[in-house]
Write a structure and sequence with these properties.
The chain is an all-alpha fold. The protein has a single domain, classed as Amino acid/polyamine transporter I, CATH 1.20.1740.10. It has helices at about 1-35, 50-55, 60-65, 115-125, 130-140, 140-165, 180-190, 195-225, 235-245, 255-260, 260-280, 300-310, 320-325, 330-355, 370-390, 390-405, 425-445, 450-475, 480-520, and strands at about 165-170, 175. Strand 1 and strand 2 (about 175) form a beta hairpin. It is globular, with a radius of gyration of 24 Å. This is Vesicular inhibitory amino acid transporter. Its main location: membrane. It is found in: Cytoplasmic vesicle membrane; Presynapse.
Length: about 525
């Protein structure tokens, strides 16, 4: 009897402890400690759910602990990323069911429009805005116009992408029939090629995620080299040191630990932006207004287009974000004020920074700061880059593992996880190889602006301009008004021209830089 009583008391104590931990995790999540800071972001997720899961991953524990029986012991951690054998393996959902179906149930924690706006702001107001003054250098007032134009277009394409998630049922009601960007792509290619669209979107995601990781390594090496120019350490050596610090990312099982630093990263970034603007304002008397002209550098301005577009990429996680809002009708309003704010802040930051340094503006604007301020600011930026790297890296690993190793009978290679849920040795080797690949790219092509322009022109324009307008026309063309058709066609044509032009010029610059480095 005493043993039975002790057993019950132990179960109750364990349950209460786990519930309190889960509630505390949920409290931190609601306070914003789960908000991603990646531009890339950020976002950046297989079937669009990784971004939201990592923002609200800890809140999933509340559902597991409070939804079960009192004596039941809840699972620990983010159930989607549990890989250490202490939790269930990720479901091997088929393409028809969609890997996002595991999170579509009722009772999932919802977010307000303000929280959704915070997530979008983090995605489009990240550290890559540091390259915008360089875009003004080669575009002048046309570069400023492009910052405004890109904000308007990305806001519009975000809205029409969400419209593609809905259809009218037999009763005339508008209902949500799709969950992700991949679902929309597959619906457009059905019935002849039911999985082609999803594969195209996944490839675009992988390219953007890996390129984002490379950019973090490049910017880390660049900032450290310019912060301590007197040290006998080259930029390539700093990149190698940064990669050595990032190598443990290959052992990541989930993003719970990493995401705790996200709010600090965001706050640090805003402080850095304020410091840069404050310094520029202190030199307002010396601003070179005459340097801002209407002409453009024909060879380098297309690269600037890619830089600007890349700084606005957020479409990849918008379907998941809208699906998790308490009131999805507020999505349009949220998109309006977030992109208006981003447009104003980016335009002012780029213009003020360029007016301060004019023709001496560098690819990463903090390299123009005086040496005393530069070292402090750059160290904070490097810390932010290193803390942000695991997010796109883990997202890329998730997409690659699901597409190539865990897609049931469609998988190209054997499962990289054992029966106990642990990562096999050769799977860990492939993860390490991905980290090393980002290092090699950063070493051979250490050009922040060129890489950012190439990524923005290729995947940024595709995911933000081309595909949303094409999908909108394909799925809803019978119900569109003439001006919507006109906007979609215009965005597709203009986006296609800018994408091709920026890609060609960025690729030419990268090839030239690669040859120069090879000769050295």
């Amino acid at each position: 009897m005493a043993t039975l009583l002790r057993s019950k008391l132990s179960n109750v104590a364990t349950s209460v402890s786990n519930k309190s931990q889960a509630k505390m995790s949920g409290m931190f999540a609601r306070m914003g400690f789960q908000a991603a800071t990646d531009e890339e972001a950020v976002g950046f997720a297989h079937c669009d759910d990784l971004d939201m899961e990592h923002r609200q991953g800890l809140q999933m524990d509340i559902l597991k602990s409070e939804g079960g029986e009192e004596g039941a012991e809840p699972l620990e951690g983010d159930i989607h990323y549990q890989r250490d054998g202490t939790g269930p393996l990720p479901p091997s959902a088929s393409k028809e069911e969609g890997v996002c179906s595991e999170l579509s149930g009722q009772g999932k924690p919802k977010i307000t429009a303000w929280e959704a706006g915070w997530n979008v702001t983090n995605a489009i107001q990240g550290m890559f805005v540091l390259g915008l003054p360089y875009a003004i250098l080669h575009g002048g007032y046309l570069g400023l116009f492009l910052i405004i134009f890109a904000a308007v277009v990305c806001c519009y394409t975000g809205k029409i992408l969400i419209a593609c998630l809905y259809e009218e049922n037999e009763d005339g009601e508008i209902v949500r029939v799709r969950d992700s960007y991949v679902d929309i792509a597959n619906a457009c290619c059905a019935p002849r090629f039911p999985t082609l669209g999803g594969r195209v979107v996944n490839v675009a995601q992988i390219i953007e995620l890996v390129m984002t990781c490379i950019l973090y390594v490049v910017v880390s090496g660049n900032l450290m080299y310019n912060s301590f120019p007197n040290l006998p350490v080259s930029q390539k050596s700093w990149s190698i040191i940064a990669t050595a610090v990032l190598l443990p990312c290959a052992f990541l099982k989930n993003l719970k630990a990493v995401s705790k630093f996200s709010l600090l990263c965001t706050l640090a970034h805003f402080v850095i932006n304020i410091l840069v603007i404050a310094y520029c304002l202190s030199r307002a008397r010396d601003w070179a207004w005459d340097k801002v002209k209407f002409y453009i550098d024909v060879k380098k301005f297309p690269i600037s287009i890619g830089i600007i577009v890349f700084s606005y990429t957020s479409q990849i996680f918008l379907p998941s974000l809208e699906g998790n809002m308490q009131n999805p009708k507020e999505f349009h309003c949220m998109m309006n004020w977030t992109h208006i704010a981003a447009c104003i802040l980016k335009g002012l930051f780029a213009l003020v920074a360029y007016l301060t340094w004019a023709d001496e503006t560098k690819e990463v604007i903090t390299d123009n700061l005086p040496s005393t301020i530069r070292a402090v600011v750059n160290i904070f930026l490097v810390a932010k880059a290193l803390l942000s790297y695991p997010l796109p890296f883990f997202a890329a690993v998730e997409v690659l593992e699901r597409s190539l190793f865990q897609d049931g009978n469609r998988a190209f290679f054997p499962n990289c996880y054992g029966g106990d849920g642990r990562l096999k040795s050769w799977g860990l080797t492939l993860r390490c190889a991905l980290v090393v690949f980002t290092l090699l790219m950063a070493i051979y092509v250490p050009h922040f602006a060129l890489l950012m322009g190439l990524t923005g022109s290729l995947t940024g324009a595709g995911l933000c301009f081309l595909l949303p307008s094409l999908f909108h026309l394909k799925l809803l063309w019978r119900k569109l008004l003439w001006h919507h058709v006109f906007f979609d066609v215009a965005i597709f044509v203009i986006g296609g021209i800018c994408s091709v032009s920026g890609f060609i010029h960025s690729l030419e610059g990268l090839i030239e830089a690669f040859r120069t480095n090879a000769e050295d």
